């Protein structure tokens, strides 16, 4: 409730004193009226739903579609009022959405940052508005970890390492030329999956990444980059794709070039969405590292704790596994996404 008293009135006039008194009286009346909303960051009144502002990266992949559905379904199940914004993979749209959530005085903000950098200013605005922030799926590079309450998502370096470890264990003798389809430039999963894979294949000096380029996590991006690699690279033994959508685009390019994916060229991917697992069970992909998009239930649980002022872990790592061709055939029918 604002109890700010007017500055000392200069001798310039009684009018200023009257105006200040009227303003103060109006301010007190507004704060005491039953219709006044609780200060942002205060828990909603008992029985009132939590209002969550969620800024989603976009709709670039099968993983993102499954992630969005998980968040929307979980909000409905938890009775959380969800204000959902699709940023179409543009950081400026996410920043606009977060500022709008602040103006709307939501109880909590959650978002998947499309890239790691450039978030400190808007996160500081949320902090000053006393609105807690939860990172989900992707991380930010902010040094100040007080800018968000927790980060719920996968360990992308571990995912890249799992992919590289499988290649080291299954590579043929002699030189192995790998082409890499990177995710969105500057995105945490792209940076970290590249790092983890490179760290793992260092165990076998015969394996080398001969070309690496972003396909922006999309099927069309993966196809275009793979077409270019097939023209520019004399030998390609392996494709390492940072997600299934780019791997599926690469398969289209490989087949159009008259080669057999999964046999002439080994394909390793990340995500394990339905289309990727289908290609894996058909032998067109050789190995997939799972990246679990079903973050909705944990996100709603964390949001309710954060709004209630309860402590939550700074980092919550999602559980996930890997799949071979044989394992894909066994589990395909039961996959949730
Ligand atoms: C990973 C997620 C990535 C997926 C892609 O958590 O951010 O973004 O691997 C998606 O499929 O586009």
In short:
42% of the residues lie in helices and 18% in strands.
Can you give a write-up of this model?
- The chain is built from 11 helices and 12 strands.
- It has 337 residues and is α/β, with parallel strands linked by helices.
- It folds into 2 domains: 51-153 and 294-319, Response regulator (Rossmann fold, 3-Layer(aba) Sandwich), CATH 3.40.50.2300; 156-291, Rossmann fold (3-Layer(aba) Sandwich).
- Strand 9, helix 9 (274-281) and strand 10 form a beta-alpha-beta unit.
- The longest helix has 19 residues, at 14-32.
- Bound molecules: beta-D-galactofuranose.
- Beta-D-galactofuranose is lined by residues 60-61, 63-64, 137-138, 153-154, 189, 217, 243, 245, 270-271, 291.
- Beta-D-galactofuranose (GZL) binds at residues 60-61, 63-64, 137-138, 153-154, 189, 217, 243, 245, 270-271, 291.
Key features of this structure:
alpha/beta; Rossmann fold; 2 domains; 6-stranded parallel sheet; 6-stranded mixed sheet; single chain; 337 residues; binds beta-D-galactofuranose
| Helix/strand class | alpha/beta
* Tally of helical runs: 11
The first-to-last residue Cα distance is 48 Å
Tell me what the CATH architecture of the largest domain is: 3-Layer(aba) Sandwich
Q: Are there runs of 5+ residues with pLDDT below 50, and where?
A: 1-16, 18-37
SSE pattern: HEHEHEHEEHEHEHEHEHEHEEH
Bound molecules: beta-D-galactofuranose
Whole-angstrom Rg: 25 Å
Structure summary, number of beta strands: 12
Task: Describe the global form.
Answer: elongated
Helix content: 40-55%
CATH third-level topology of the largest domain: Rossmann fold
What would CATH call the homologous superfamily of the largest domain? Response regulator
CATH domain class name of the largest domain? Alpha Beta
Please describe the biggest sheet, giving its number of strands, its sense, and whether it closes into a barrel.
Answer: 6 strands, parallel
**Mean pLDDT figure:** 90
Question: Order of strands side by side in the largest beta sheet?
Answer: 2-1-3-4-5-11
Number of domains: 2
Estimate the strand proportion. 15-25%
């Amino acid at each position: 409730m604002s109890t700010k008293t007017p500055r000392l009135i200069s001798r310039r006039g009684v009018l200023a004193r009257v105006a200040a008194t009227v303003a103060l009286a109006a301010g007190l009346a507004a704060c005491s009226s039953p219709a006044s909303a609780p200060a942002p960051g205060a828990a909603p009144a008992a029985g009132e739903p939590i209002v969550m502002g969620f800024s989603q990266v976009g709709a670039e992949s099968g993983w993102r579609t499954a992630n969005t559905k998980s968040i929307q379904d979980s909000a409905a199940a938890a009775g959380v009022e969800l204000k959902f914004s699709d940023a179409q993979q543009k950081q400026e749209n996410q920043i606009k959405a977060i500022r709008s959530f602040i103006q709307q005085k939501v109880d909590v903000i959650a978002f998947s940052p499309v890239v790691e950098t450039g978030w400190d200013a808007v996160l500081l605005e949320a902090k000053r508005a006393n609105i807690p922030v939860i990172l989900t799926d992707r991380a930010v590079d902010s040094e100040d970890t007080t800018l968000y309450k927790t980060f719920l998502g996968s360990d992308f370096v571990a995912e890249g390492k799992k992919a590289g470890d499988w290649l080291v264990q299954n590579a043929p003798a002699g030189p192995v030329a790998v082409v890499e389809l990177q995710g969105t430039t500057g995105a945490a999963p792209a940076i970290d999956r590249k790092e983890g894979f490179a760290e793992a294949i260092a165990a076998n000096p015969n394996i080398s990444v001969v070309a690496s380029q972003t396909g922006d996590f999309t099927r069309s991006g993966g196809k275009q980059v793979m077409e270019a690699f097939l023209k520019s690279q004399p030998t390609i033994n392996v494709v390492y794709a940072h997600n299934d959508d780019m791997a599926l685009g690469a398969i289209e390019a490989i087949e159009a070039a008259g080669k057999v994916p999964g046999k002439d060229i080994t394909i390793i991917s990340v995500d394990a969405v339905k289309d990727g697992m289908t290609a894996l069970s058909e032998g067109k992909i050789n190995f997939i590292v799972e990246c679990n998009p079903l973050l909705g239930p944990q996100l709603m649980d964390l949001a309710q704790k954060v709004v209630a002022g309860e402590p939550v872990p700074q980092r919550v790592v999602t559980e996930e596994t890997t799949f071979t061709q044989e394992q894909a055939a066994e589990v395909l029918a039961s996959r949730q996404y």
